[in-house]
Write a structure and sequence with these properties.
Elements: E1 7-11, H1 15-26, E2 31-34, H2 38-57, H3 65-69, E3 72-75, H4 78-82, E4 85-90, H5 96-109, E5 115-118, H6 125-128, E6 138-143, E7 152-157, H7 163-175, E8 179-182, H8 192-208, H9 214-229, H10 234-241, H11 245-263, H12 272-285, H13 291-309
Parallel strand pairs: 1-2, 1-4, 2-3, 4-5, 5-6, 7-8
Antiparallel strand pairs: 6-7
Helix pairs in contact: 1-2, 10-11, 11-12
């Protein structure tokens, strides 16, 4: 992995902060981690090495753990930690008052082009940056957990966030091996937690209604939906499940899904216009003449997963 010259600062040395330090150091960036607690500063190096050693044993490192860990410095001074950083990754507790105070300090301590990114999973940037001069540099960069194993990261700008701030963040995260997704507008839970929440709400309802046990529901997800969703999303899944693609799937299954939603008090029918837009985007991604090849690809991926899940005789 080539050495990078762009410095990354991580504010908060908890599990997410250590994980982000790993992500950027593995990509070759110099990283400085700030934490106000001396006990955390002492603990970070060992935690980082432990995670790197685990990745090495799985064949997921291109360099030795020691080389990667050497790129990470621990700092007791916030201004020193963020000096000359191109991106600051905030990883502090999920409290609005804490984030507002921190971003006010970060705005004063960093240059006019430094990206200030919040790891928040619920607090939008418009709240964290309210009234701050640096609001145009602040956005949410919400990761999956842990971010060194789940590459998706949601970039959620506020209405005040500059376009070049989002572009720089996208470049840096993508360059570090992550999969950045820019969320078009602020909405509670962003995309990740809204999708996860929809599944959890139905799972709880099925247990409540006596339809299935907790283990049965986890089995359906683990051995069914989860296997497909591990390498393709719900739209591609539906598109490949029905000959004729997602428009055909919506025609056949849309009424049933509408009834299921109504049963839960949710009225979100797949209108013709909405289906047409989804179909347009899917056909842009996968022209109809490539559909058969993609179905074959799907089956190959499922076969590989089946082989991995096959019990091994000891």
């Amino acid at each position: 992995m080539p050495e990078q010259t762009e410095k990354i600062a991580v504010i908060g040395g908890g599990s997410i902060g250590v994980a982000f330090a790993l992500v950027f150091a593995r990509a070759g960036h110099p990283v400085t981690v700030f934490d106000p607690e001396s006990a955390r500063r002492v603990a970070i190096p060992a935690e980082l090495i432990a995670k790197l050693e685990s990745l090495r044993r799985s064949g997921l490192l291109e360099e030795s753990p020691a080389v990667i860990a050497a790129r990470v410095g621990i700092e007791a001074s916030l201004p020193a930690a963020v000096a000359d950083a191109v991106l600051v990754q905030e990883c502090v507790p999920e409290r609005l008052d804490v984030k507002q105070l921190l971003f006010a300090e970060l705005g004063e301590a960093t240059g006019p082009d430094t990206v200030l990114a919040s790891s928040s999973s619920a607090i939008p940037a418009s709240q964290s940056s309210a009234g701050l001069a640096a609001a145009d540099r602040i956005l949410v960069a919400h990761p999956g957990n842990p971010p060194f194993l789940l590459p998706v990261i949601e970039l959620v700008p506020s209405p005040a966030t500059r376009a070049d701030t989002v572009a720089t963040a996208h470049r840096l995260y993508a360059g570090a091996g992550m999969s950045p997704v820019t969320v078009a507008r602020e909405t509670e839970g962003f995309v990740f937690n809204r999708l996860q929440g929809a599944v959890l709400r139905e799972a709880y309802a099925l247990v409540r209604d006596g339809v299935a046990t907790v283990e049965d529901i986890d089995t359906v997800m683990r051995d069914g939906l989860g296997r497909r969703w591990s390498f393709m999303g719900p739209f591609e899944t539906a598109d490949l499940n029905t000959r004729g693609g997602i428009a055909s799937h919506a025609k056949k299954m849309g009424p049933a899904y509408e009834r299921m939603g109504a049963e839960r008090g949710q009225h979100d029918p797949w209108t013709p216009g909405l289906v047409a837009e989804v179909e347009r985007q899917r056909r842009t991604l996968l022209p109809q003449h490539q559909w058969e090849d993609r179905v074959a690809w799907r089956d190959e991926q499922l076969q590989r997963l089946a082989a991995l899940h096959r019990p091994v005789d000891l």
